[in-house]
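Encode chain A's predicted structure.
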Amino acid sequence: GICAVKIRIVCLHEDFRPANKKIPLIYVQDPKKNRLFQWNDVKLSMGLTQLSFPLSSEPALGTYKLVVEKSSRKVAEHTFYVEEYVLPKFEVLVTVPKQISVLATEFEMTVCGRQMGMGVEMTEVSSISITSTVSKLSFENAEPYYKPGIPLFLQMKLVDGMDVPMANKSIEITGPSGVYKENERCDNSVLIYHRRASHLVNRFYSPSQSYLHIEPLPKTLSCGNTEHIRVHFILDPNAVKKEMIFYYLVKPKGDFLLNLLVDVDTAPITRLLLYTILPSGELVAHSRDFTVEKCFSNKARLWFSDQQGLPGQKTQLHLAASSGS
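Encoded structure for chain A:
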């Protein structure tokens, strides 16, 4: 269709007061310097005039020039560009969760449109998976063997259907003869599932039924601290003398604590190996890996001399570091 080009001309004195003058000639040139339109003796009202002219449905593309000739023969020019109209590119983004629970009553979604054009419609389709699993149980760092008479240490993780940890929930752990109810039907007749977890442990073999076991710590060890590691043991009374030495004096069954110094040389993983040799020649041993936080060999501290102060008050900044830092 035909498009109108609108022009506004403002004329001011040096002190920025409106100049109510008459402009002898105003004209428009196309990119080929052809004069398309012109206006003669245009009178300004309060230093302002507004003009317009139509462009054809297929105008010449390029730079057009607007020329204003004043009474003093001074010329003011302004250029504008005419180009082919192209529908703007745009897109619609729909963000939804990949999965929701069958028990969910609502979920959050966002819709974002970019550079939407006039009269243009676009449809975006996203899919959401609905899971009937409302809880999932798994073993974390489970040990592959058990030793008769020594506690079996297990770490378990309980999450919902979207893998969000579930706090303050009770779980039941049973042996081979236990019964676990996996399915549960809710009031609205929608079948939901509680995913169970299983872990197979084999009996650790010892000819004399003697065992050592280092108790795990469910945390990352802090650098610069001394951690207390508990060790459980069972020794066959017939295979040992009155006492055995693990760097400690022990009885045939019980537990004791080891002090493990955590420093830069033990990071990021340290392995504790504990063993003893029975008079029969049997080696009773156990090892365990512990995760250690990142450590720095040189320690530094930075602090102010005063805990608080007034604006403009003098204070001191202290810096302390290890020798050789």
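The chain is about 0% helix and 45% strand.
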